[in-house]
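Input record (one chain):
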Amino acid sequence: MTKTPGTSGVRSFVARRLLLGAAQTAAVVLLVFALTEALPGDAAVALAGDQPDPARIAAIRDAMDLDRPAYERFADWAAGLPYGDFGTSLASGRPVSRYLADGFGPTLLLASLTLVLLVPLGLGLGVLAARHEGRLVDRLVSFVTLAVYAVPEFALGVLLVTVLALKLAWLPPTAVGYGTDLLAHPDGLVLPVLVLLSRPVCSLSRLVRAGMVDALASPYATHARRCGVPGVRVRYAHALPNALAPAVQQLARTADWLLCGVVVVEALFVVPGLGTVLLNAVAERDVPVVQGLAVVFGVLTVALNLGADLVAHRLTPRSEVAA
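The corresponding structure, as predicted from the sequence alone:
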């Protein structure tokens, strides 16, 4: 069975992206370890605190194998990563993988709820603005999205807590006391999800609007209308798919941000997710936990962007995505 040129091109693109993703993942692992090694001073003394005890310094040095060459420690640490062995916490003696497992659930829940609401809201607002290009609806959507996007998450969170939680008492101000089982307390998820949703909705809707406006003004859309193709079909069967490729990549960046960069929101609402785990690890100078989180965040970023490139290439098979 002969292979068509299109199929061969897609397979070649997928192979290139997979190889690039593997190289990026290896680079992330190496970079995380190298940055830790590059920290100035004696790591054991720094981790022991302001008044280091010789016994604690010796215990830390033994736990981190600081007396061994760096390349040997890197080889042992990297060899355990594929099996979920990220080392042991210096602060508690627990496996780092337990910290990651405990924090991943709340972060994943917030990210999932945000994405479930983001897709219909972002696409809907973008399509609505594009359908009424230059009219009042378009200007209103553009003004509101630009204004909301300009507000930092922390400021918006403080405003929502002040109004909805403290003044009106409609919602709890934080997730304190809920633990990791946030689904049992859905009212504690409303404010964090609203804050996380605010800026991605604005950027996605503006991206979809711009893509649809360009597609509707293209020669093939004009020709389709001249041939009597209904406007609904032109908008949703021809124009919208052309706006989805950049939208998918924007969604991947948003998912990456939700899983790896929600430290401010989790700290503001006291959500026990990965961001909170990172803040606690930094405060306690728990290097193995910080290293494990950095590797997880880096691998998630590589995987999400790789998936987005593959989907975007599938949606626009005629345009090569830069490998």
